[in-house]
Design a protein that fits this description.
single chain; globular; alpha/beta; Metallo-beta-lactamase, Chain A; six-stranded mixed beta sheet; eight-stranded mixed beta sheet; binds zinc ion
Length: 329
Amino acid sequence: MAPTVSLPTKLYYIARMIGAFVGPPVARWSARPALPSNTAPAAFELGNGVTLWQLPVGVVRVREWHRELPRELAEVDDDLRFPMMMSNTRITDWLDCTAWLIDHPERCILVDTGESIGFGTSAYFEGVPKTLAKGYPKIIDATAADGNDLTQALAVAGLTPADIDLCVLTHTHSDHIGNVDQLDHFTRLLVSPEELIPSSRGGRLLARLPQGDRVQPTTLTEPHEVFGSVMPLTERKDVFVISTPGHTVGHQSVVIDLGDRQFVIAGDAAFNDQQLLDKTIPGIVENRQLTLQTYEVLLRAQQMKPTLNLFTHDPTNRDKLAEFSRPLQ
Ligand SMILES: [Zn+2]
């Protein structure tokens, strides 16, 4: 049960949140650290002819409580969690934004697109409702270094955007869809139907998605013993989309299942593995109950077979992959 929070405490957090929104953008009230030097994309041979590319594209800074709420505050109502998070004044250093390229014998699949150097400009927020566009830079700070964009990262993998016919978006926050405009005009974008429902909450930037039928709702049709139902993306059915709601109610992830082990490209389902084990939650979840259910599913998957979870902003992804993509004995 959610703990009871007194009315004065509630009003305190709401007042602090309002203060954060009328105040300057995060980048101005907390001096921007120097950008990290560009990290080159890295490739990992997973087996069965599948190569996974980690593409670092852009960076993001958030409040410490955005990444993780103190345990004593983690159980408040969904409505109060956001004001609490916004009242926090400690900002993280730059965190990686990761796009993933699955180079599979059947096709190349991109998962997310990272953040763009244009974050925060009026062109970037074109078509986005005014209050959302104004509020966004008060919630996060994001950018990319010159030359750190999706097209250049793909070039390191020997590809151009024209080689990508499918891009799965875990959700529609800026640091995941920041470079959709660099994709080719025929690239299909797979987004969960729940994510596509317009909402004033959740900071979804639906206006940044291309118009027309390129954006397609995910259809989870194949039953799966751990993940409920899934949407296969390959004939071999070894790459599929699963539903991992919580961070946003339409958040989804992509699984690469190689039989004896699997990889879950888990977006912002959590910030790191420890959160799953401790059942602590980031401040930025739309629905706490769904977040915890998603943790349960990911933990159950680990019990079924060796499973590596890859989170968008986890600085240990590369080490984890280097360790895990060795052949199992
Ligand atoms: Zn994110």
